[in-house]
Each structure stands twice: as structure tokens, then as C-alpha cells.
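Support reply, case 0932

Customer input (verbatim):
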Amino acid sequence: MWIRMGSFAVKEGEVEALRGVYNGTAVPKVRACAGNLGCLLLEPVEPAGEFLVITMWRDRAAGEAYDQSGAAAEVVALVRQFFAGPPTLRSYESASADGLDS
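Our regenerated output:
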């Protein structure tokens, strides 16, 4: 499994708007891509914490195909207006796919 995790701070007063755009528009767009296993927006419980976006892919090829298709750039463009600074993007591999519903 291939995991992409983005972290970012959100502008003050924009959390509800980010939540609506991400869950209402971005999640369906990501979930429609071949090989996607899940897409989550994680909200910090500490006031100064960063938000995380996690996408899970069947394998690295599926995640890279999503990036190269332009869909990833479209999703970032949907939410970029809410960022309080530059995002950080990291990639991970996981052998724990059995921990997810199939």
C-alpha cells in the first residue's frame, strides 16, 4: 500500500470552509481515482496543530498515476486558499493493508 500525507496550517476562521470543500468536493474526486483505498482530512485537537490529509493507494503505481494525471494538482487547487503557509507532502509504504476493509 502507498500512503501520501500532506500537512498544513489553516488560516484563522477557515476551518469550516476547508472541511466543506475537502469533504464535499475533494474526497469524491480522489475516491473516484483507480486504486484509491481511502482519503481523509484529519483535524488537530490542539489549537496550534497542523491539519493532515491522507490518501491511501493500492500500490505506489496507483498513487503516482493519480499525481501524474493532474487530479492531485486539482485537489490541492481546491483547498490551497485555506492554507496559512506552504504544505508539506510525504510518502510512505505500508505492509498493513490487512488493517483496512477490503
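We compared this against your earlier run and they match. Two observations from our side: Residues 60 and 73 are 17 Å apart (CA to CA). The longest strand covers residues 2-8. Please reopen the case if you see a mismatch on your end.
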